[in-house]
Write a structure and sequence with these properties.
- The structure holds 3 protein chains of 3 kinds.
- Chain A is built from 25 helices and 8 strands.
- In chain A, the strands form 4 sheets. Chain A has a two-stranded antiparallel ribbon with strand order 1-2. Chain A has a two-stranded antiparallel sheet with strand order 3-4.
- Chain A is mainly alpha-helical.
- By secondary structure, chain B is of the alpha/beta class.
- Chain B is built from 10 helices and 12 strands.
- Classes of the chains: A mainly alpha, B alpha/beta, C mainly beta.
- The interface between A and C is large, with 31 and 48 residues.
Chain lengths: ~475, ~375, ~350
């Protein structure tokens, strides 16, 4: 297989998953790019997580009662799932269809939402929105349980339109009016949750969705030009038919899987950077009956995707998970994963607890001088730890090249092992100079492992490595 | 606004976990105190009296001294309407000033943006402890979070000094902005150099510092010392923040012993901080705010207290007009709010006072409205 | 003993515990041991985020709090094999010798620590990670026989090992697999009055019974949720009448079998308010209102992930539910007529 094959598979695995060590990339490249895409899109073909084993050793992953424990559990899944796209799509929807711990205060309820994202989130967007409208975490987070017949709370109605489906506008025009927000909110009155069992003395119980017909406004509504005695499902039915919704889903998929776009609030007035790509995805949205897997099939096999290497700044989750996968630690639940997981928070992405209902701003906004220090030091500490099995594998592979490496071989070898990374000429020159400054690079020398470690550390500190 | 020429500086110490207000400023003169606290009360003869009704926890000697000197304001009964008894939610409300909906920016993040709109100084705000508190988070605002000031830096995991210097040299060169590489790369390059510069500057602070004050070895003490070191180094830092770790004030059980240790450490840390600034003649432009996300239940639960509502807040500094502010909330059963102290001062009024009278900023957009200010400055 | 015990009656008795990071209450109670004079020892697994929650709580069967001892690791993270004496990382089971000294297994450190009944640290066996004779890989359940020999379920090595109480290796049985006498990540263990050994063969969803020398005697159960079927059984206990109790983890129930392994009954949980729980609510009275308004409060009765089962000489059956921070106690009514009236 060619370098080109490896680099394409590395790109796919970074985007559709969380990266992979070189041996996995080689195995996948041998099977072929399209076959790998098909496998990723068919998660059921791969074994699920061994939940019994996870919960046996990590008792708090059973109760799902604490934020940190649940962040850790998800991190473990993202590192180890044989269905990487399932975890990636859960992360994707979590970043779009936002609920937050600061309000929900019961991670199990959000974990149930994530389970819906893992399965329904790869199916029909229509079903997903219906599920979301009845998801207790969401109903509570956006106050639909506080919206009553004759006294609506617009929060859910507004965010459903603005942040979860149509978007404020496209091509310079608004996608909906203030009246549409109110009418949608009216249609969802009576969609509520049960009063939950309080946390004292034995801990919380998950709340259930409940429809209260007495609190439902059954009068006529006019929503996006259609009139009828709509309920919430009718609103979702109307929403998913809209061209704006196709644009919204396409643009989010593009922003998450292909290349950084401007921040969501700017989408009304800023056209997509690759309108042809967006159009392809929009067409597939309607052709497939709003099917996310079908859209991803088109996306991952497109040229626009294959040509989009290193055009996204990695999110903190992608950074931490990708690094831990690479160094091969935490294949089995063990103490210490909690501290690793906290690094995602330190880099600015407190999973399950996003700062606002808009989720996190992405792209270069992940990076500031505070989070950059966290990011570089974490990745460098990990890849520089020559006791990690994944790092040992890298050292062994480089040693097997021969007794002496040229500076070029060392730099290129490290780049390949990190996932076929490419560097700007100037960066490459600096790293070559650094490699040369130590004199002859003997793979049998005592200092060789450390030399590799330092090279890996220098590479992960570059601007290039901030990208995926 | 004070007349000092130096820029005003705000230090915040967050007592995470929910400090028991009732056993901090103790209403020892009120028989209802003992009635409600059969198992978790401080005997009258141990209280450090403020007047014949209330007094400080016996372990708060150092802070009592500052109070007696007239430089500590005790704001009684601070809170907000429809109190949340959840750590996360209530802390979030204190951080974002948004008690109803989910807030989108931290109040101090907004302060930093007002102070340094062009983000010219990477050290305008510094947090001590890993992970940025929500209070300091706002889009476009960078604040360093320092886990360990002595070892703070970039690529600190490279043990070998020579290797690290080489790697840092490479780092500097690869982050140097290259013409024509586009705004994103340009931004990242600048940010990288800023991070390196900020880390270099910050880590120089301990070396420039000497003091006769010996701080305790607990986390809060060490971070209060780091705050003084950073302030003395003159980097132009205006907001310094730290948090008592591990939600330690969450005293559901074994409260008397735990609270004794917590306040011994915290009060000493605050006293040392104050003395250290004084020793360096550097306290005139500094105030310290000490707060917690909520107080605890009026009734004890046998060996501790559970999550409650209204609490106290302390403001300390040379320019602070010491004394009691607000009213001590009533312990009468019919005046309690679901079994908790009722607040009578909105925390956003405390913030507004600090923002307008101390920092010289327009408080309204930062705290999201107009709230009654106090006279402690 | 006859098989007539099938009309044995097991009744709910009470609930003990509440969620608390320290003091009276539990943090993920995973295993219970009964001492003399109404004393019980509750092993709290805790979490790595709040190491103070890792502890042994000593209380009475009437829920009088006595003390706590042992501790978790410092927050700064475990230093793989450099843990201080007495520290616990993943404590899993607790066993009492004839002097009522406590032995605690730690699935992370592969360490057995011992404490006096007053909580003084007595010592630990030398570290022995591995798969050789006497070496351990994730030691789970433990039980003493009448001669103070300690049987340890060596779960990662899919076997049971026998030691004297100083840690000297004596014997072992079992290998990986699903045949008779083979195991797949076994967890709980108990020893009956005859000295026979019962193992909760966790991933094989069955119970196996052995002679003290490891000779296979019988097995019962298979995967499923019907009567007599299991979804990852965590613990097994046998009472004086030979009745077998199994905590059926992911089926959220306690199953009861006769001495031949024939299904008798199952309990899905009847938890009520514990003494400590009530004290917690009294200190937070608005919780009563929330409970009144709650829909589905009856769910509070149900078992949720029982992690073990312990019986005592008085016919009490203790079932810890780590995720609910409580222990449901059941009482077996002996079929023997006890008078005084007809």
């Amino acid at each position: 297989m060619s370098e080109q094959d490896i680099s394409q598979i590395a790109h796919l695995m970074r985007r559709a998953g969380f990266g992979a060590p070189l041996e996995e990339l080689q195995a996948r490249a041998a099977k072929g790019y399209d076959a790998t895409v098909d496998e990723l899109l068919d998660p059921e073909s791969q074994p699920p997580m061994e939940r019994d084993m996870m919960m046996r050793y990590k008792v708090d992953w059973f109760s799902q009662a604490g934020l940190e424990g649940q962040q850790e559990e998800w991190t473990f899944r993202m590192i180890n799932s044989k269905r990487p796209l399932q975890e990636k799509i859960a992360l994707f929807w979590h970043c779009v269809l936002v609920t937050g711990h600061a309000k929900c205060e019961y991670p199990k309820q959000q974990a149930m939402e994530l389970d819906m994202f893992r399965t329904v989130g790869m199916g029909s967007f229509h079903e997903l929105l219906k599920g979301l409208s009845k998801d207790p975490a969401m109903v509570f987070y956006l106050d639909n349980c506080m919206s009553h017949k004759g006294a609506i709370n617009e929060n859910w109605g507004r965010e459903l339109l603005e942040l979860f489906s149509l978007g404020v506008g496209m091509d310079g025009d608004f996608n909906y009016s203030e009246d549409d927000v109110k009418e949608a909110a009216r249609a969802f009155t009576g969609w509520t949750v049960t009063n939950s069992v309080p946390r004292y003395p034995y801990g919380k119980y998950d709340a259930k969705f409940m429809f209260d017909p007495r609190d439902h406004d059954a009068e006529e509504k006019t929503f996006l030009g259609e009139t009828g005695n709509f309920n919430g499902e009718d609103i979702v039915d109307i929403i998913v038919k809209q061209p704006a919704t196709a644009r919204f889903v396409a643009r989010h998929l593009y922003n998450f899987f292909v290349a950084d776009d401007v921040q969501v609030p700017a989408w009304k007035d800023t056209p997509p950077q690759d309108i042809e790509a967006i159009k392809m995805l929009e067409e597939e949205y309607f052709r497939s009956n709003y099917n996310i897997t079908a859209m991803l099939q088109v996306l991952f096999k497109s040229d626009f995707f294959k040509n989009s290497t290193f055009s996204k700044v990695k999110s903190p989750a992608e950074t931490v998970i990708g690094t831990l996968k690479l160094v091969g630690d935490f294949k089995f639940p063990r103490p210490g994963l909690d501290l690793m997981t906290m690094n995602i928070r330190y880099m600015g992405q407190d999973l399950l607890n996003p700062p606002t209902v808009e989720g996190w701003h992405t792209g270069r906004e992940w990076i500031d001088s505070g989070t950059l220090v966290e990011r570089i030091n974490f990745t460098a500490d990990q890849v520089g730890n020559i006791n990690h099995s994944g790092v040992k594998n890298i050292i062994n592979r480089l040693s097997s090249v021969g007794p002496v490496l040229t500076a070029e071989q060392l730099v290129e070898g490290c780049l390949e092992n990190l996932g076929a990374y490419q560097l700007a000429d100037e960066t490459r020159k600096q790293l070559l100079e650094m490699a040369e400054s130590d004199g002859e690079i003997r793979t049998d020398s005592e200092g060789f492992p450390l030399q590799v470690g330092t090279m890996l550390q220098s590479i992960v500190a570059t601007t290039e490595y901030l990208f995926a | 606004m004070t007349s000092t020429k130096k820029d005003p500086v705000l230090v915040v110490l967050q007592l995470a976990g929910g400090n028991d207000a009732l056993n901090t400023v103790i209403p020892y003169g009120n028989p209802k105190y003992k009635d409600n606290r059969p198992n978790v009360f401080i005997p009258e003869d141990q209280v450090l009296p403020i007047n014949d009704q209330i007094g400080f926890n016996p372990n708060m000697g150092a802070m009592k001294k500052i109070y007696d000197e007239g430089h500590m304001a005790v704001i009684q009964g601070v809170g907000y309407p429809t109190a949340s008894r959840s750590h996360f939610r209530s802390m979030d409300i204190w951080h974002t000033c948004e008690p109803i909906k989910i807030g989108d920016e931290g109040w101090l993040g907004r302060v930093v943006r007002d102070l340094d709109p062009q983000a010219e100084n990477v050290l305008t705000a510094v947090n001590f402890g890993r992970g940025l508190p929500r209070a300091l988070a706002a889009p476009g605002v960078a604040a360093a979070s320092v886990g360990n000031l002595e070892t703070y830096g970039v690529l600190t995991g490279i043990d070998d000094t020579d290797q690290r210097l080489k790697a840092l040299d490479v780092f500097t060169k690869v982050y140097s902005p290259m013409i024509g590489t586009g705004p994103v790369m340009d931004y990242l390059a600048h940010t990288g150099l800023d991070a390196l510069k900020g880390a270099d500057i910050l880590s120089s602070a301990p070396g420039m510092y000497s003091s006769t004050v010996e701080y305790g070895s607990d986390t809060v003490s060490q971070y209060m010392r780091n705050i003084v070191q950073t302030h003395l180094a003159g980097f132009g830092t205006r907001v310094l923040y730290t948090t008592a770790p591990f939600n330690s004030f969450d005293t559901h059980a074994g409260e008397l012993a735990a609270h004794t240790r917590l306040w011994s450490e915290t009060s000493r840390a605050v006293g040392d901080f104050y003395d250290d600034l004084k020793e360096h003649n550097a306290g005139e432009n500094v105030i310290l705010m000490v707060f917690s996300e909520f107080g605890r239940r009026v009734k004890d639960n046998g060996s501790g207290t559970d999550h409650g509502a209204g609490g106290h807040c302390f403001i300390i500094g040379d320019q602070v007009k010491g004394g009691l502010y607000g009213e001590y909330p009533s312990l009468d059963a019919d005046k309690l709010d679901d079994g908790d102290l009722q607040h009578n001062t909105d925390f956003r009024g405390v913030y507004s006072t600090i923002l307008e009278k101390w920092m010289g900023l327009d408080a309204k957009p930062i705290v999201g409205g107009e709230f009654e200010q106090l006279a402690f400055i | 003993m006859t098989t007539e015990i099938s009309h044995i009656s097991v009744q709910y008795s009470k609930t003990i515990g509440r969620g608390e990071q320290f003091g009276p209450g539990f943090t993920y109670p995973i295993n219970v041991a009964r001492g003399k004079e109404g004393i019980m020892y509750v092993l709290c697994r805790g979490t790595e985020f709040r190491p103070e929650g890792v502890r042994v709580v000593v209380c009475t069967t009437d829920e009088e709090y006595i003390s706590v001892f042992a501790r978790g690791i410092d927050y700064q993270g475990p230093h793989a094999h450099n843990m201080d004496d007495g520290a616990l990382v993943w404590p899993t089971s607790i066993a009492l010798d004839s002097q009522e000294n406590l032995f605690i297994s730690d699935e992370w450190l592969n360490r057995i620590s011992s404490f006096s009944k007053d909580g003084d640290f007595l010592g630990k066996w030398e570290e022995r990670t591995g798969s050789g004779d006497g070496e351990l890989d994730r030691p789970s359940g433990m039980a003493f026989d009448a001669d103070d020999n300690l049987y340890i379920v060596d779960s990662g090595n899919h076997r049971v090992q026998k030691f004297n109480k100083d840690g000297k290796y004596l014997a072992q049985f079992g290998t990986y697999g699903s045949g008779d006498g083979q195991f797949d990540m076994p967890w709980g263990i108990t020893i009956d009055e005859a000295g026979d050994i019962y193992i909760a063969d966790w991933r094989n969803d069955r119970i196996q019974k052995f002679k003290p020398d490891g000779k296979f005697l019988m097995k019962f159960g298979n995967s499923g949720s019907g009567e007599g079927e299991f979804d990852r059984p965590t613990g097994v206990a046998v009472d004086q009448d030979g009745v077998i109790y199994v905590s059926d983890w992911l089926n959220n129930r306690l199953q009861i079998f006769d001495e031949t392994g024939k299904f008798i009954d199952l309990k899905t949980g009847e938890a009520g308010l514990s003494k400590w729980g009530k004290a917690k609510l009294d200190a937070n009275p608005e919780m009563y209102g929330e409970r009144d308004r709650a829909q589905g409060l009856e769910r509070e009765k149900d078992f949720w992930g029982p992690t073990g089962v312990t019986v005592d000489d008085e016919g009490n059956i203790f079932v810890p539910e780590s995720a609910r921070n409580r222990i449901q106690v059941y009482k077996s009514q002996s079929p023997t007529f006890a008078g005084p009236r007809l």
